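Justification of computing resources. Each target in the renewal requires a structure prediction run like the one illustrated here; the chain below, 241 residues long, is used simply to show the kind of job we budget for.
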Amino acid sequence: TTVYTVTGTSSNGCTKTVAVQVTVNPTPTIGVQSTPSNSVCSGSPVALTGLGASTYAWSSSVTNGTSFIPSATNTYTVTGTSAQGCTNTATLTVTVKANPTVSASKSPNFTTCRNVPITLSGMGASTYTWTGGVLNAQSFAPNSTNTYTVTGTSSNGCTNTSTILAVINQLPTVVASASPSNASICLNESVTLSGGGAALYAWSGGVSNNQSFTPSATATYTVTGTASTGCTNTATQTVTV
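Resulting structure tokens:
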């Protein structure tokens, strides 16, 4: 800021002096704050805030201090205006990091029966977290059909998800019965054992389902019933001789 003096002289030699002050306002020093940071994952919001002035105008239609979702890495310019009307600019580059392409697989890759172990594995990232208490690439035995979601995190800290359906068939409720019903017979008498609750039956001791035989001593027989889904379960029947 400076005071300037001018002396004017008329044609008759008379003079007069006038002083004027020229005020030079300082240019504001503009800073930029990015929240949460200037490096974000694709689809994540960021807020840009100008510092050091009174009002701010941003490039790319950004509103000062208001979050938005950048679509790609970009450099933004803010023009800050002080209370005296002076301006200055600052720039900030916001880096947009790519999210991983996460997929999920199941082994074996077909419908299984209850309590049969399966393994779920995530792919396309560095680390994986599953719902339902599942550990990545470690076998477990589910009790029922369920949809599992895996969250994969890449080395740059960005995440994505994938889901997989594990269809689990229930075991048949297999029952064993005998004729006579009390399964108590005399030596050299015959008995018939029958399975129920499944589609196919296989008995221990060489017994055929629904076919009479003559046991030589008291014994317990096991029937394995197989449902139409291929799942199996067992039941036992004791024959007293």
